[in-house]
User: Which sequence fits this backbone?
């Protein structure tokens, strides 16, 4: 009888993998595969991409998981291909076609309609979504043929640009707030143009300050020698690059790591221009200690701490 090789024990891995997700895979599937390739103990993602979508999916490992919420709340940037004249059940290529109409719109008409979707807008979440009602995701109701009333949500479209129009396809650049459904945006643009639409393709190219330019595919990670794979990870503080830094001398760093609020003297430390959330480092070795709120009168209130910093 052949012997079964014992599983390799998981090891502590800390950092952020900027993954370029391929089409046809769920966010959870690629997380599990990346975790296995890195043999990591702890991992999580920073918000999902639909299976048909591609692009930037930051995956957090170890201590980085403490800061994943910051990317959930961050703005997202996409390139979207909208197919005018064809509507589907799901608002994308996954659903059955529900209507087809002729497309006879000009670029000038498109530009005018796009202007109506910039800034703060109200958006009704789609039935084919993971939002829950009475403990059950909406897509389960939709698959059973049940349509429920949904309240509109306020989202912000920071940028909406027409990259190309070759009828019946619109290629759009979108930068938006969290909670924005690009599928719904595509459908609403099609409705405003009078021909309907669905999302043909979607690629996420940015999350907060993170860019697809620095991302790797699962295939690239798998082809990397095992002992070199952690070198593909960005540092934990890659998630926090939008927060200004505060650097503490060792004595204050120890107190900070014990969760103590610190009354700092502005004459001794370089302070950010504004109060609010900051990332905190130890002087000398540049070790990330965690995040904090910098409050009035120079009070630094610890928020999330990096456990491994205490042993560094």
Assistant:
């Amino acid at each position: 009888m052949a012997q079964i090789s014992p599983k390799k024990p998981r090891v502590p891995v800390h950092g952020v993998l900027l993954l370029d997700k391929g089409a046809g895979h769920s966010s959870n599937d690629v997380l599990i595969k990346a975790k296995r390739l890195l043999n990591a103990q702890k991992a999580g993602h920073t918000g999902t991409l639909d299976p048909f979508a591609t692009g930037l999916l930051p995956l957090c490992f170890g201590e980085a998981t403490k800061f994943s919420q910051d990317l959930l709340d961050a703005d997202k940037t996409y390139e979207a291909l909208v197919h005018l004249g064809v509507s589907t059940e799901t608002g994308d290529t996954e659903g059955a076609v529900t209507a087809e109409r002729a497309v006879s719109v000009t670029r000038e008409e498109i530009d005018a309609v796009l202007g109506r979707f910039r800034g703060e807008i109200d958006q009704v979440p789609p039935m084919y979504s993971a939002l829950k009602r009475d403990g059950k995701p909406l897509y389960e109701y939709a698959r059973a043929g049940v349509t429920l009333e949904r309240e509109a949500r306020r989202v912000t479209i920071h940028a909406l640009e027409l990259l190309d129009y070759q009828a019946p396809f619109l290629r759009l650049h979108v930068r938006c707030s969290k909670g924005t459904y690009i599928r719904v945006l595509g459908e609403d643009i099609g409705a405003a143009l009078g021909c309907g639409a669905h999302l043909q393709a979607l690629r996420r190219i940015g999350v907060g300050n993170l860019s697809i330019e620095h991302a790797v595919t699962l295939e690239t990670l798998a082809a990397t020698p095992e002992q070199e794979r952690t070198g593909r990870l960005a540092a934990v503080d890659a998630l926090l690059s939008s927060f200004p830094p505060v650097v503490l001398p060792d004595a204050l760093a120890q107190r900070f790591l014990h969760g103590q609020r610190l009354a700092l003297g502005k004459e001794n430390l370089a302070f950010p221009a504004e109060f609010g959330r900051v990332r905190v480092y130890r002087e000398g070795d540049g070790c990330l200690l965690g995040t904090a709120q910098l409050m009035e009168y120079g009070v630094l209130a610890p928020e999330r701490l990096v456990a491994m910093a205490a042993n560094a």
User: Anything to note?
Assistant: The mean pLDDT is 89. The longest helix spans residues 27-38. The chain has seven helices and 18 strands.
